[in-house]
């Protein structure tokens, strides 16, 4: 089932058009390669009518794909003991393809809408509930300065990494703040992360205090280090009585919350994941 079949030129043309449509989304190159590989696998399976035949018998067409065929493809992957996360990633890629095709008029009906992903076995995560979140925010408000309040709110409500927080520059926020996003990540993998009104408001209050890096060390006056940031977050977690949590827990918590109302592909973009397999951990 993992053998890659030669896809027809028509099928490859569709894959290429779809992949080209993703170029402007600042996706990691590995993610784009995964999309292409998933679609080649599915189209090969469809055009060869399963993986038993040795000869291409169909030319890919969206109108040929029914919900029944997608369910058959899903069951075929289960029979060869693929990991549920791999099956779900392929199905999610197909869903994204059909959504794109329907939007651009290549298909009259999106047959992928009703295909269900497999449940993923996992231990329940330690989620921070609303009351615990309030305790944490109250702790930093009572015992911290404005800088610390901004840091905690960004980590809770955007899910960006500790290292990304430390590397934020004023220019990354100032240019895009009015549109409700900030720019984070390495120079070659920069991405836009949405801000809620609470984050926008406190950033407006804080922005005038710095001219280069957004968050500076009180001791050195230079960029806040990742080690110092983790220590800072741990201090307020302890004050709030939230044991067993860390700076990474806030990002993890954001991922689980956002997954309840966000598509896998959108969440991957927001969190800057290199692989959809990473994003998959947030979907039950």
Structure description:
The chain is an all-alpha fold. It folds into 2 domains: 9-103, DNA polymerase, domain 1 (Orthogonal Bundle), CATH 1.10.150; 130-280, Intergrase catalytic core (hpI Integrase, Chain A, Orthogonal Bundle), CATH 1.10.443.10. It is 54% helix and 3% strand. It contains 13 helices and 2 strands, in the order ααααααααββααααα. Strands 1-2 form a two-stranded antiparallel sheet. Strand 1 and strand 2 (191-194) form a beta hairpin. Helix 2 packs across helix 4 (84-103). The chain is elongated and about 70 Å long. The two termini are 25 Å apart.
Percentage beta strand: under 5%
Percent of residues in helices: 40-55%
CATH superfamily of the largest domain: Intergrase catalytic core
Structural class: mainly alpha
Q: Give the helix tally.
A: 13
Describe the structure in brief.
This protein is an all-alpha fold and 284 residues long. It contains 13 helices and 2 strands, in the order ααααααααββααααα. It starts with 8 loop residues before the first helix and ends with a helix.
Topology:
Blueprint: H1 9-22, H2 29-47, H3 67-79, H4 84-103, H5 130-143, H6 146-158, H7 162-167, H8 170-174, E1 181-184, E2 191-194, H9 197-206, H10 226-239, H11 247-259, H12 264-271, H13 276-280
Antiparallel strand pairs: 1-2
Helix pairs in contact: 1-2, 2-4, 5-6, 6-9, 6-11
